[in-house]
Amino acid sequence: MAGHDPPVRHTEFWARLDHHLGRSYSRTWAEQVVIGDLDHRTAKEALDAGVPPKQVWEAVWRTLELPASER
Q1: Can you tell me the distance from the alpha carbon of 48 to that of 2, in angstroms, rounded to the nearest whole number?
Q2: CB 53 within 8 A of CB 9
Q3: Coil, strand, or helix at residue 11?
Q4: For 11-25, what is each residue's pLDDT tens digit?
Q5: What pTM value is reported for the model?
Q6: How far apart are CA 68 and CA 61, in angstroms?
Q7: CA dihedral over 22, 59, 39, 50, signed as positive or negative
Q8: Which of 8, 21, 63, 68 has the fewest CB atoms within 10 Å, i.e. the most exposed one?
């Protein structure tokens, strides 16, 4: 159930992004790709602004068009 998903922590967010993009590229991607769903901020800017990692991950997930199993 979507309302009962466990929260995504910062470490889990980075691990997921590393898994999909590779550790070195994931950091660059998170600092450079502006995501409309994050009020036109990058993932890093959103995290730094206090947006919950789960919300940031969901926006990244949609942007990268990852499979539902990776949500």
Answers
A1: 25
A2: yes
A3: helix
A4: 999 999 999 999 999
A5: 0.85
A6: 9
A7: negative
A8: 68
* pLDDT for position 8: 75
Residue with tokens 């769903």: 37
CA dist., res. 40 & res. 8, Å (int): 21
Q: Side chain identity at 14, as an amino acid letter?
A: W
30 exposure class (CB count in 10 Å sphere: 0-12, 13-18, 19+): buried
| Dihedral sign for Cα atoms in the order 68, 66, 70, 8 | negative
Q: Is 52 exposed, middle or buried (0-12, 13-18, 19+ CB in 10 A)?
A: middle
